[in-house]
Design a protein that fits this description.
The complex is a heterodimer. Chain A is an alpha/beta fold. Chain A has 2 domains: 37-137 and 269-317, 3-Layer(aba) Sandwich (D-Maltodextrin-Binding Protein, domain 2), CATH 3.40.190.10; 139-267 and 323-349, 3-Layer(aba) Sandwich (D-Maltodextrin-Binding Protein, domain 2), CATH 3.40.190. Helix content of chain A is 48%, strand content 15%. Chain A has helices spanning 2-28, 31-34, 49-62, 73-83, 97-105, 115-120, 150-153, 177-190, 192-205, 214-222, 233-239, 245-252, 282-292, 295-305, 318-322, 333-349, and strands at residues 39-44, 65-70, 91-94, 109-110, 132-145, 169-170, 228-232, 254-257, 268-276, 308-309. In chain A, strands 1, 2, 3, 4, 5, 6, 7, 8, 9 and 10 form a 10-stranded mixed beta sheet that branches. In chain A, helix 3 (49-62) runs antiparallel to helix 14 (295-305) and helix 10 (214-222) crosses helix 12 (245-252). The longest helix of chain A has 27 residues, at 2-28. The termini of chain A are far apart. Mean pLDDT of chain A is 88; it is low at 24-36. Chain B has one domain (5-532): MetI-like (MetI-like fold, Orthogonal Bundle). Chain B contains 21 helices and 2 strands. Chain B has helices at residues 5-26, 34-42, 45-76, 82-88, 97-108, 113-122, 137-173, 178-206, 210-214, 220-230, 234-259, 281-317, 320-354, 357-367, 374-393, 406-429, 434-442, 447-476, 479-484, 492-501, 505-532, and strands at 77-78, 277-278. The chains are: A alpha/beta, B mainly alpha. Chains A and B meet through helix 1, helix 2, strand 2, helix 4 and helix 5 of A and helix 10, helix 12, helix 13, helix 15 and helix 20 of B.
């Protein structure tokens, strides 16, 4: 420990001087003039350690440097919009279909012509004008305790609004995009009026006022608060072997159940990407996206972040496979984005906090 | 040389520059779609208003009580560990609020470690006991207050140290008891200092997103993001933000209005150090507890949890790139703190010299930046840059983009944190009687000489306090940095945030510990200087 701290101090002092020079330089040079040709500038909402590895792989393979800014998709979209034609952004990456929809709607993306992407990414996982492509999938599922009777009673998302589950459901606030996407899917399947009744039904069934994140809901049911938790699959994966004992212990006590829509499959959302309208390095941008959809990159997505790859022939990780299999819902990702605003309004009407 | 002109002009120009993002946001009060607005009014707007007001009142109440009572006790009395508390009471300020909120959730929530432990101890189930749910609006108020009371503590303390000795002496000769002095004299004269601190605490609480979202509290700010991200309507989000700003504006002016007939300007006579009264027995214990409880809850408890997590994971988190991030954070925070402290001085000194209403109003507008959530400030700034790009650089055919540079980032910090610095100066300046300036004028001493030889030595503590608080705030800042930063540019706060997002709360404690560590060092420097003078 002592040695560690001393080393750190030494490195800090050494690095300090060079860093300072670099920084003053970058402060003086404005962004626009900074970018040479062998670069690709990425605005990303993804914030996982795996991404660093992936970008490094791409740099080693192509010699193209990856520059990244990470923030919420809506903020990045606003930034692209105000930067306009001068925007340095080449690629936008989001963690949900809604963000891609917003970007496309505001004319910030462009159609790209890539045989590889069109041939390998299923139609419902990409934009109809090929302005964006999904990279990974995540399912929004139900969790219950190991000895629970829930699996016998709950088969569909529609069931969640059934009064027999009164006081049993743990689910987070409707501020969250994944809940918004889920309701957007309900709207797509059943229409607006049903969706409102469904949302009201779920609110009536809640064990607690919505709060916390997905992991919080899982921890709650593991500790006997509520019986049904709604969470995204990769959150469950992240809890396994977590250094935070409370999370690691909680996840041992629960099991995943993949609900379906009555006339569809399990609700999924995607993390996806598109090329910016005014991309200064368009060729690099396409190469970059094709790389992210390549088998090597897809394997890493699957192994390291508990997500489902979009390439058909790449397997999920062992942890993910142990949860069982499911069938993707039938509705297109395009619809989730289109219905998002309506979903938020219905949440407000249903008093889903 | 009636008004110091260059100062006046630069102040006006700076105010305009700094307030443009806020004005852009404010202009949305008349924009946005009426359909969305109708929807918000019919459904959630009432909740947003009520909850935000509740938080403002709650945080104002708690921070003023905790902050002022501890400042008073440690200034006037000496008791067990009082010298330690003198420093220690500022420390909660160094811990980012979202970390405290998360740790408190983990301990005292329905499934929390402490809750479970106590329930097991008494062999009870949760539904059999009266349980206070920390993840609620009241819980959020408590958590925010525990971390934000140092604002009130610091500003009150600076004020009391300068003022209380002569006042206490005078009150004693009038035969007032210790309690009467506190109640009838100290509290009323300290009001400007308390209010300056409370306004900062309230503005920070009401612009918070992380804590409120995690604790499930719907406020203006959670509403702003919901409307922006979920409904895709940045106009309506900005409209909500402008309503929030109006709230704060009204708050500041109500306070000013009330103060207008009461001049609490110091006489400046009999400036002398306080001879502290030594407490014994029960009073000693009471004073100790009064200081220990906020220190324990606001700092020691979360700090202990963080230290444990830090030890579990520091070896896997600290590497070359971590050091780089640390240095980047230090550089940007130091530079921003210098700049903001200097800018704020210009504003406040200008108000003092020119004595006109307009400069005062300008300063108040600049302060509003602190009440706007960081991400919304970022939106205002992006729109502002878009205007510059389109109408200035395009005409000059310059292909320059300010967006995504360090300049944009520092501009953002200035918009947001000038209020802190200004509030520090204001309470500092209010201690210097205006007769000093008048005396210098009649002796034909130039304003610059007055500044150097009279004013600066008297407010050097405020300068230092401002520098250090802004320094810590910049290190902790997250939402604005996320949006405005250049490529490949991370800070400690961003790193910590990313770990939290990946469920790696244990690892997130490592960058957070460095934030706290830097905070502690800064606080020690600050407190030392406050002791010395």
């Amino acid at each position: 420990m002592k040695l560690g701290l001393i080393n750190i101090t030494i490195i800090i002092i050494k690095k300090g001087s060079t860093m300072f020079k670099k920084l003053t330089l970058s402060a003086l040079l404005l962004a626009g003039s900074l970018f040479a040709n062998s670069e690709v500038n990425v605005y990303s909402h993804r914030h996982y350690d795996t991404d660093k590895e992936l970008f490094k792989m791409f740099e080693d393979k192509t010699g193209i440097k990856v520059n990244v800014v990470k923030a919420d998709a809506s903020a990045l979209i606003k930034r692209m919009q105000s930067e306009g034609q001068n925007s340095p952004a080449d690629v936008l990456i989001t963690v949900d279909a809604g963000g891609l929809f917003q970007a496309k709607n505001q004319g910030l993306l462009q159609s790209i012509d890539s045989e590889y992407l069109i041939a390998n990414i299923p139609e419902k996982l990409r934009d109809k004008d090929n302005q964006w492509f999904a990279l990974t999938k995540r399912a929004r599922v139900v969790l219950h305790t190991l000895d629970s009777t829930v699996p016998n009673e709950l088969k569909t998302y529609e069931d969640l609004a059934d009064p027999k589950f009164k006081g049993k459901i743990m689910i987070r606030s409707s501020n969250n995009i994944y809940n918004q996407s889920l309701l957007a899917a309900v709207i797509a399947h059943h229409g607006e009026e049903y969706a409102l009744q469904w949302a009201k039904g779920v609110v009536a069934n809640m064990a607690k006022e919505p709060k916390g994140n997905d992991r919080y809901q899982v921890t709650a049911i593991a500790n006997g608060i509520g019986e049904i938790a709604i969470a995204n699959t990769y959150y469950v994966g992240q809890m396994v072997d977590n250094k935070d004992v409370a999370q690691a212990e909680a996840v041992k006590k629960v099991k995943i159940l993949f609900p379906k829509f009555e006339k569809g499959g399990t609700h999924i959302n995607v993390s996806g990407t598109g090329v910016a309208k005014y991309s200064p390095n368009k060729d690099n941008a396409i190469k970059f996206i094709e790389f992210l959809a390549s088998p090597d990159a897809q394997k890493l997505f699957a192994q390291a972040n508990f997500e489902y790859p979009v390439l058909q022939n790449i397997e999920a990780s062992d942890v993910v496979k142990s949860w069982g299999t499911f069938e993707d819902d039938t509705i297109s990702m395009n619809v989730l984005g289109e219905n998002n605003k309506l979903a938020v309004k219905i949440f407000d009407q249903a008093n889903w906090k | 040389m009636k008004n110091f002109k260059p100062l006046n002009i630069s102040s006006v120009v700076l105010t305009l520059l700094i307030s443009v993002p806020a004005i852009i946001i404010l202009s949305h009060i008349f924009l946005g779609s009426s359909e969305n607005w109708e929807h918000l009014k019919q459904t959630v707007l009432g909740d947003y208003i009520f909850n935000s007001l509740y938080i403002m009142v709650g945080v104002a109440f708690l921070t003023s009580i905790i902050g002022f009572s501890t400042a008073y006790v440690t200034t006037v009395f000496s008791f067990s560990f009082s010298n330690f508390f003198h420093y220690a009471l500022i420390l909660p300020f160094a811990i980012p609020t979202y970390i405290v909120a998360y740790i408190y959730g983990g301990m005292f929530d329905i499934t929390g470690t402490v809750t479970t432990f106590i329930l097991n101890l008494f062999d009870k189930r949760l539904d059999e006991v009266i349980f206070f749910d920390i993840m609620s609006i009241e819980g959020a108020i408590i958590v925010m207050s525990l971390v934000l009371y140092p604002y009130v503590y610091l500003i009150s303390k600076t004020y009391l140290r300068a003022e209380s000795a002569s006042i206490i002496d005078a009150s004693k000769t009038l035969g007032l008891s210790q309690w009467q002095i506190f109640y009838k004299v100290i509290i009323p004269i300290s009001r400007p200092a308390i209010v300056a601190g409370v306004i900062l605490a309230v503005m920070e609480a009401v612009s918070d997103f992380g804590v409120m979202d995690y604790y499930g509290v719907a406020t203006f700010v959670t509403g702003i993001f919901r409307t922006w991200f979920g409904m895709g309507s940045i106009e309506d989000a900005a409209r909500l933000a402008s309503l929030l700003m109006l709230f704060i504006f009204v708050l500041i002016f109500l306070e000013k209005l009330q103060r207008i007939n009461k001049q609490y300007k110091s006489s400046g006579k009999d400036f002398k150090p306080i001879s502290k009264i030594k407490l014994k027995g029960g009073n000693n214990i009471l004073a100790f507890l009064l200081c220990f409880i906020p220190f324990f809850l606001g700092f020691l408890l979360p700090f202990t949890q963080m230290s444990y997590w830090f030890m579990l994971s520091y070896h896997e988190v600290i590497d070359d790139s971590f050091i780089q991030i640390l240095i980047q954070t230090l550089i940007i925070a130091t530079f921003s703190a210098f700049l903001i402290t200097a800018l704020a001085f210009i504003f406040v000194y200008n108000v003092r010299l020119s004595k006109n209403k307009t400069s005062d109003i300008l300063t108040q507008i600049v302060k509003l930046g602190y009440s706007i959530p960081g991400a919304v400030v970022a939106v205002g700034i992006l729109s502002f840059f878009a205007l510059i790009d389109r109408y200035i650089f395009n005409i000059l055919t310059l292909n320059i983009l300010i967006s995504g540079t360090i300049i944009a980032l520092i501009f953002g910090y200035s918009v947001r944190f000038l209020a802190i610095s200004i509030n520090n100066y204001e309470s500092g300046f209010s201690k210097i009687p205006s007769s000093y300036d008048d005396a210098c004028k009649t002796m034909n001493i130039t304003p610059i000489t007055t500044l150097r030889h009279v004013i600066l030595p008297l407010i050097k503590n405020s300068v230092l306090a401002s520098f250090i608080i802004v320094f810590i705030e910049v290190i902790k800042e997250l939402p604005l940095t996320l949006v405005l930063r250049p490529f490949n540019y991370d800070t400690l706060a961003i790193l910590s945030h990313e770990y939290v997002n990946q469920s790696q709360i244990v690892q997130s404690s490592v960058p957070a510990m460095f934030i706290v560590g830097l905070g502690i060092v800064s606080v020690l420097i600050l407190a030392r200087n406050m002791i010395k003078d």
